[in-house]
């Protein structure tokens, strides 16, 4: 046990000195294995573990979904989605902010990355809201919270990583995220309407012009059809997540080529961006497996399960503790770091308590989604601030009412699991 706490201190120190989470976990796990087994056996475990994890076929979905998002962003398709949503509902009070949330749902279904979605919204939607006299406080808050939808709405990279770490069906996780994602978007729109009707932060936009709305929607229809094709292929059992991701890449490439919005330079940048992001994620997954192996050899996970089996605490209380720990971690870490650190212990505990793996995955991703908005880290707020030059304090104040709605949605998912499991259960019938 003394060695275990020493390794935890080493891990904490590495993270404090800003060593990337993948390398911090890999170094700490390797040192722990060396102390537990000896240097040569530890290196053998290290080699086998990293290779087995990184060679997993399901990881193919990660670079493909990222490349799909990069192509659509480089081809200006994401900006056009924002313009189309604004044309349809931007004329009502608070309409531009609600249109930003609607566009965020579309981007989430195509981008899969919260920070990328936030950056796209900050670059495209924020100037439009500022031009229509929306307060910076509300505008930046909407941009930040809209970006978090990419964590739950498929094809979420966070759900893919959770599926790989816990060996849970990624297809079912994707389908399970649809209703919680739409529920979250509806909650955010409700908060915007309340703010619009009780304050002067969200005036009306330009008058509605049907001809303009239809014209702006022409370029978005292919993107929506692609989104439905990717999700429909997974839901109908026609394709695995990896195959559906390949379909998404092919479709997105065809869209941007036919619309003539992608240059060869932009294509190269898209491929390079996808490679960089993929290497980072695979490194996190592989090094997390090394640390998990160390935990297995120390029998910490086994002792945790024994505690769960013998404790007098109810399973609801233990789940509440897990959620609280994840929320606290979310204040200081990004979502992938939280998953890689917490899942080796939290997932076996939840399974021992009899919870469903798919439901737990959605609850976990919803919890880390909230962490993207909470200070002091609040990654999405930092991205929005960097793009818009609005002070962080202003953004965090604007986020507060949305955080309340996020917590309400999380509680609804906790108390009513069938909301999450309804669609995945239909897949198996």
Automatic annotation (TrEMBL):
One Gene Ontology MF term: transmembrane transporter activity
Transport found in the keyword field: yes
Q: Which residues form the TRAP C4-dicarboxylate transport system permease DctM subunit domain?
A: 8-419
Q: How does it sit in the membrane?
A: Multi-pass membrane protein
Domain of life, per lineage: Bacteria
Looking up InterPro entries in the UniProt record yields: DctM (IPR010656), TRAP_DctM (IPR004681)
Any stretches that span the bilayer, and where are they? 50-69, 105-126, 138-162, 174-196, 220-238, 244-265, 277-297, 317-345, 357-379, 399-423
What keywords were assigned to this record?
A: Cell inner membrane, Cell membrane, Membrane, Transmembrane, Transmembrane helix, Transport
NCBIfam families with a match to the protein in the record: dctM (TIGR00786)
In Swiss-Prot or TrEMBL terms, this protein is called TRAP transporter large permease protein
Q: Which gene encodes it?
A: siaT_15
């Amino acid at each position: 046990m003394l060695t275990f706490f020493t390794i935890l201190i080493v891990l904490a120190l590495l993270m404090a000195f800003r060593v990337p989470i993948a390398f911090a976990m890999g170094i700490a796990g390797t040192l722990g294995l060396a102390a537990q087994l000896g240097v040569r056996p530890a290196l053998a475990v290290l080699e086998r573990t990293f290779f087995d994890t990184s060679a997993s076929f399901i990881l193919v979905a990660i670079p493909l979904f990222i490349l799909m998002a990069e192509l659509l962003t480089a081809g200006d398709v994401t900006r056009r989605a924002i313009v189309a949503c604004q044309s349809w509902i931007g004329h009502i009070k608070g309409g531009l902010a609600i249109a930003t949330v609607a566009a965020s749902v579309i981007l989430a279904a195509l981008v899969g990355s919260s920070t990328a979605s936030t950056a796209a919204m900050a670059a495209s939607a924020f100037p439009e809201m500022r031009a229509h006299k929306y307060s910076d406080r509300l505008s930046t808050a909407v941009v930040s919270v809209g970006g978090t939808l990419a964590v739950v709405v498929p094809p979420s990279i966070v759900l893919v990583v959770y599926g790989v770490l816990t060996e849970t069906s990624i297809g079912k996780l994707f389908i399970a995220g649809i209703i919680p994602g739409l529920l979250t978007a509806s909650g955010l729109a409700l908060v915007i309407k309340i703010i619009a009707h009780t304050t002067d932060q969200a005036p009306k936009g330009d008058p509605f012009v049907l001809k303009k709305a239809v014209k702006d929607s022409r370029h978005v229809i292919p993107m929506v059809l692609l989104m439905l094709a990717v999700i429909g292929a997974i839901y109908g059992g026609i394709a695995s997540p990896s195959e559906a991701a390949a379909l998404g890449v092919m479709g997105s490439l065809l869209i941007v080529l036919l619309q003539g919005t992608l240059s060869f330079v932009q294509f190269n940048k898209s491929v390079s961006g996808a490679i960089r992001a993929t290497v980072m994620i695979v490194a996190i997954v592989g090094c997390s497996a090394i640390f998990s192996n160390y935990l297995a050899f120390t029998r910490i996970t086994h002792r945790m399960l024994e505690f769960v089996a013998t404790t007098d605490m109810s399973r609801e209380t233990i789940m509440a503790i897990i959620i609280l720990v994840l929320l606290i971690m979310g204040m200081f870490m990004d979502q992938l770091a939280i998953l890689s650190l917490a899942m080796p212990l939290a997932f076996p505990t939840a399974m021992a308590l009899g919870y469903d793996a798919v439901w737990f995955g959605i609850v976990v991703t919803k919890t880390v989604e909230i962490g993207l908005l909470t200070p002091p880290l609040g990654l999405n707020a930092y991205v929005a601030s960097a793009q818009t030059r609005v002070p962080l304090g202003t953004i965090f104040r604007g986020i507060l009412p949305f955080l309340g709605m996020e917590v309400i949605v999380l509680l609804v998912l906790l108390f009513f699991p069938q909301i999450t499991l309804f669609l995945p259960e239909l897949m198996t019938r």
